[in-house]
Each structure stands twice: as structure tokens, then as C-alpha cells.
Design goal:
This protein is of the alpha+beta class and 120 residues long. The chain contains 3 helices and 4 strands. The longest helix is centred in the last third of the chain and has 19 residues. 4% of the residues are buried.
């Protein structure tokens, strides 16, 4: 005794009379190779009638996550990873009190020049 779905044995669920030609898989395609800085090659397929302007010069390489370009001899450079900066590193970069006061005075002078005078 068979229980369960109503699909006929050996058929794909949802399969209909449409074939590849109805899905556009028969279109002429061209293969374009992209290389990243590590030498990884990625091949992407584009419609043959697509103008060159619409084919991207660079893509993200799925094998390395780096940008990949169409020129094998000159791939895009490796991304520069900035080291993680702690809060203390940002504090050390802050301006001195004298620089902060000079910036404040400059901003106030610009405001006074725009408005005429500033009530103090």
C-alpha cells in the first residue's frame, strides 16, 4: 500500500511541458575569466549579445573574497587590512587642549563674522 504524495513515480514535482529552450538556457553565452591577486580564477558567463560596457571589469572572487579583474597580468591589489584600534588608540589621537581651544575660537570667529555679533 502506498501512502503520501500524489506525484507519479519517476516524475519531478512541478515539472511541466517547458524545456530548457523555454527557460532561456539555449542563449549563446561567452565565458569571461577573472583573476584575483592570489591567482584564483573565476569564470562568469554572460549573454553573447551583451555590449562590452555592461560586462563588469571587476567582481568579488568567491574563493578568496578579494576583488578580481579581467586582466590576468594585472589583477587588483590585495585589500589592506587596517589593524583594530582600541579606544585608547583613539584617545591618544585626540587633539591637545591648545588645538581644541584654537579650533573653538576659529569656529566662534566664523559665527561672529556671519551674524555680526554674538551675545556673551
Amino acid at each position: 500500500m502506498v501512502s503520501g504524495g500524489s506525484a507519479i513515480r519517476g516524475s519531478r514535482v512541478g515539472a511541466g511541458p517547458m524545456g530548457e529552450q523555454d527557460h532561456g538556457h539555449h542563449a549563446d553565452r561567452i565565458a569571461i575569466s577573472y583573476w584575483d591577486a592570489l591567482g584564483n580564477e573565476t569564470v562568469r558567463y554572460f549573454a553573447a549579445n551583451l555590449p562590452d560596457e555592461e560586462i563588469p571589469e571587476t567582481i568579488d572572487c568567491p574563493s578568496s573574497g578579494l576583488p578580481a579583474g579581467r586582466d590576468r597580468e594585472n589583477p587588483p591589489a590585495l585589500a589592506k587590512n587596517e589593524p583594530y584600534k582600541t579606544h585608547l588608540a583613539y584617545v591618544k589621537e585626540r587633539r591637545t587642549e591648545e588645538e581644541a581651544e584654537a579650533l573653538l575660537q576659529e569656529a566662534l570667529d566664523k559665527l561672529r563674522a556671519r551674524r555680526g555679533t554674538v551675545a556673551s
